[in-house]
Specification:
The chain has 152 residues and is mainly β. 7% of the residues lie in helices and 37% in strands. The longest helix has 10 residues.
């Protein structure tokens, strides 16, 4: 089993969260809420208002998200969903654990590592976009995410 940190549409209450619990995609278990130890720019970009974590450590904000334990089937599914390696790249990120569930040995205030889907393949202007520390598809930014089934 592998740990994955999600910060965008896969988080609880967001449009793609259901994908983590579709057994056809594999197994996933929520472990904890967490934030990145380093700052990163989390921007909403593109014609579909997709959240992107730009792989520019030290810029932006500490990003809030969730840690899941996933099996290899789910990891392969997430790689495909996130269009690895063309759109996102799966890298390791250091995290500060906030609140925990699950049986794993994570505790609030502790540090851990997990895979994250960040990108180095972004448009030149994206680093200058407004950043956020916590993504919500219905947030005050007014940039509602466009689900895949509604894209033309």
């Amino acid at each position: 089993m592998t740990h994955v940190f999600v910060y965008g549409t896969l988080k609880k209450g967001q449009p793609n969260h259901y994908r983590l619990f579709d057994k056809a995609n594999g197994e996933a278990e929520f472990l904890a809420s967490a934030s990145t130890s380093e700052k990163f720019p989390l921007v909403i970009a593109g014609e579909y208002n997709i959240p992107f974590l730009l792989n520019l450590p030290g810029q932006g904000q500490q990003v809030q998200g969730e840690i899941y334990r996933v099996d290899q089937q789910m990891l392969r599914y997430l790689d495909e969903l996130e269009s690895v390696p063309s759109m996102y790249q799966r890298t390791v990120v250091k995290l500060q654990v906030k609140e925990c569930e699950g049986e794993e040995q994570l505790s609030p205030g502790s540090s851990t590592e997990a895979f994250v889907y960040s990108t180095t393949t972004y448009q030149p202007l994206w680093p200058s976009l407004p950043t956020c520390d916590s993504y919500d598809s219905q947030g005050p930014h007014g940039l509602e995410y466009v689900p895949r089934h509604k894209r033309v």
